[in-house]
Every structure is written in structure tokens, then in C-alpha cells.
Amino acid sequence: MGITSALVLFAVIWFMTFLIVLPLRLQTQGDVGEVVHGTHSSAPANPQIGKRAKITTIVSIVLWVIIAGIIFSGTITVRDIDWFDTMGDETETG
Can you give the pTM of this predicted structure? Predict the structure, then answer.
């Protein structure tokens, strides 16, 4: 895996984790009872984006280290998930 692949893998993990972390412990304006005029009652009262981004980054680093370690070690390769044998045998030359 090259540096670009590693960065793309981290970005994908980070955004997927962020979308999972966003709704956790969310209090909406409707829950708090203070709906600002012109907004939906389902809008967050205090989104805490910075705190959620820090949590996401920490979790993403841990997940990235695990996944990158599996990729670098060769435990799971692309050929392992080639269920339809589209890649052919490893010994065949093109």
C-alpha cells in the first residue's frame, strides 16, 4: 500500500466513523425546548463538532492501524476476496 492509498483509507475510515459519531448523545432543540425561529425542532441544540471530531480522529487512528496492519502483513489480500476467480491463478503470467 502506497502513501496515497494509506491516506485514502484513513479518510474513508474517518468520514464513516464521523457519520456514526455525529448522532450519538445528540440533543435536539425540540428535546431541550428552545427551538430557534426559522430552524427545525430536530436541529441540534449544541452540536459539539470539535469534540466529535477529536473522538472520531482517535477511533479512526486505532481502526486504521488495525486495518493497515492486516493489509501490510498480507493476512488478507485482494485475491482472498476474489470469489469469482476473476484474477486467475497467482502463477499464471499475462
Answer: 0.77
Beta carbons within 10 angstroms of residue 64's beta carbon: 19
Q: Which residue has the cell 488495525?
A: 66
DSSP state of 80: G
Using alpha carbons, select from 20, 21, 40, 19 the residue that is nearest to residue 29.
40
Strand, coil or helix: 82: coil
* Helix residue ranges, H only, the chain: 3-21, 29-32, 49-73
The alpha carbon of residue 62 and the mean position of all alpha carbons in its chain are separated, in whole angstroms, by 11
Over its C-alpha atoms, the chain yields an Rg (Å, rounded) of 21
92 touches 33 (CB < 8 A)? no
Q: Tell me what pLDDT residue 22 has.
A: 93
Give 51-75 pLDDT, tens digit per residue: 999 999 999 999 999 999 998 998 8
